[in-house]
Amino acid sequence: YGYASDDVLNGLDGNDTLRGYAGNDTLRGDAGADTLYGGDGNDMLDGGADNDYLYGENGDDSLLGGAGNDTLYGGSGNDTLEGAAGNDYLSGEGGSDTYVFNSGWGQDTINNYDTTSGRSDTITFGTGIATDQLWFRRVNGDLEVSLIGSTDKTTLSNWYAGSVYHVDQFTTADGKRLSDTQVDSLVQAMAAFSPPVSGQTTLPQNYRDALEGVIAANWK
């Protein structure tokens, strides 16, 4: 347990519960299935190995799930959520939040339900992920964005239930941006094709002929 100061708490081995309370705290779960609570302040939470639960609570927090199938809740404030390796569940909750997704990070689910006035939420794709490697499709009421040629994907639950479930933009490491209002243009264009097969990390020529113009027109 932390105090009303800037604390550093390390869980080490075992299944730990760490609470930062007030202050700008650093909580590291390390090995084991840990539960971390940031409390007030701008906190850094790192779940480490295994299946962890991270709660940023109040403040502008940074949450890193680490290896394992983790569950991350940002709480209020402008938070950054990184599931890392494993199949993770991420919910930024209130504020303007950023979700980070990299190659090799598995299959994540994002619930971005947020009625905060003036918020601006973002999914940012890491280095090495190009705009023409991202495949957009509707799956029932969800939006699925997958990395072609791999099993990596992020699913935005209830996207088609309304804008309160949307992120406002998608960005790439090379500075490209796609707004939520442009997503359907990509979904509709890609619906004419099946996603490229496993190991196909670039679009086949016939896909490129049909899709390059749409991708370039919407990713700016």
TrEMBL record:
PROSITE patterns named in the record: HEMOLYSIN_CALCIUM
Calcium as UniProt keyword: yes
GO molecular-function terms, A-Z: calcium ion binding
A GO cellular-component term linked to this record: extracellular region
Entry keyword annotation includes Calcium: yes
Subcellular location: Secreted
SUPFAM superfamilies: beta-Roll (SSF51120)
Domain Haemolysin-type calcium binding-related, first and last residues per copy: 142-181
Main subcellular localisation: secreted
Protein name (record): Calcium-binding protein
